Amino acid sequence: MTITARAVGRLAALGLLAAVLQLTAIAQVSIFGVPADLSPLIVASVGFLTGSVPGAVFGFGFGLFYDTALMQTLGVTSLVLTGVGYGAGRVRELRDPAHGLAPVAVGAAATAAAALAVTVLQFLLGVEAPLSLQVARQVLMTVVLNTLLALPVYALCRRALLPYLPDDPRRRRRRAYTTGGLSPLSRA
Amino acid sequence: MHDKVVRRRRAVLALLVALSLLLLTAYFGESSGGGLHAVQRGALEALAPIQEGANKALKPARDLFGWFGDTLDAQDERDRLARERDSLRGEVAQLQVANRELAQLEGLQELNTTGGLEQYDPVQARVYQRSPSTWFQTATINKGSSDGLAVDDPVVSGQGLVGKVKSVSDGNAVVMLLDDQDFGVSALAPRRGEPGSITPVAGSGSGELRFDLVDDAQRIRTGDLIVTAGTSSARLPSVYPRSIPIGTVRRIETGGGDLDREIRVTPAADLLRLDIVQVLTTPDANLRADAGRAGTR
Fold this sequence. Notes:
The structure holds 2 protein chains of 2 kinds. Chain A is mainly α. Chain A is built from 8 helices and 2 strands. Chain B has 4 helices and 12 strands. In chain B, the strands form 2 sheets. A 6-stranded antiparallel barrel of chain B has the order 1-2-5-4-3-12. In chain B, a hairpin with a 7-residue loop joins strand 1 and strand 2 (138-141).
């Protein structure tokens, strides 16, 4: 990703919009008995699209905003989402998965990792709630729900950041062909 | 170049993690009036209008999704309640059956103790089949010759006489009911002391009986109780012990002459709803006792 002021502004707007949307609407709608949690999905999508460093910075900022808006312990969500953004970016950098469903797997893994990390951190910070099956069920249902939402969230993030993303070779090929260029077959 | 990129990446990650941990530690370390808390409160104040506006703007969308969620929940709840209703319906049915059987058992118990039927060695049986024919009113019970039942043994329910054993196999027996066309029993209206005979009104389909061969039919009144007459002559022994309720006089139809009267009797036992009955396996027990007493004298 090309880091420009406009790109940073677009990322900040995306984060702000997503956080407000999450806090004011999505968190209040429960499906399968749990509300969807878009924060790991957004951060993972951004990390997956832009790379590990922008992903980690976006995750940190998003987490900080989240903790501030919810009056939670500052630093907890930042720490978790920093890891999520960095991890998703590293997946792209190391593997560069070309499969169309790769964002789904990344989103599911990010949600599961974030839920686990938050749970562990809360216990480390001294929350004295018993670890019941109810918690495990909630985490599982959130992962399932987020897996279903991963692809549309990724598509929206990609659309928002498209001007600042490096040209995708597949997209380039497709554009060349559809805008009147010769197809590889006709060239041959 | 690559090393530089890697170093920069790691440095950024380390910096962000360190910042997070620093924030976390500082937030935990300070009181609720501390600097970070104050910043958080200030940010909250600043964000509140945005959140409030967004909350209002997104309410229709939220309600729409909520409606979907509520619909799904309502469907789940409907299915759960339907299952619960079916289960309760089954329980109610079982309880009603049990209640009815209990009432019948209580009636039989009362008949045994106060009606003195215990001396006839009653065998309790369950009716599991009923003839659908209008003309042949029978019921099949789950006790047979291996339980001591024999043909012509009287069958009673908690309310009164039901019929007699028509045929018997090892483990089952067919009972001829009171309203079967072949049924007949010597009866008595104990209040008037008038003997007679009970026969069915064939084909009436209502379980109605006829009390005829009554010497002085004019003395019989509606509502009079009719019971079995029992054996009055040793030469003509009855298979039915005496004083088992048969029914009550429902109506008296008068013909052309004073003697031309037809007395209709409603059976005491509910012949359409028989569940538990008793077969009196030694119906002549009282006669044998009487004979024994006469012999000793």
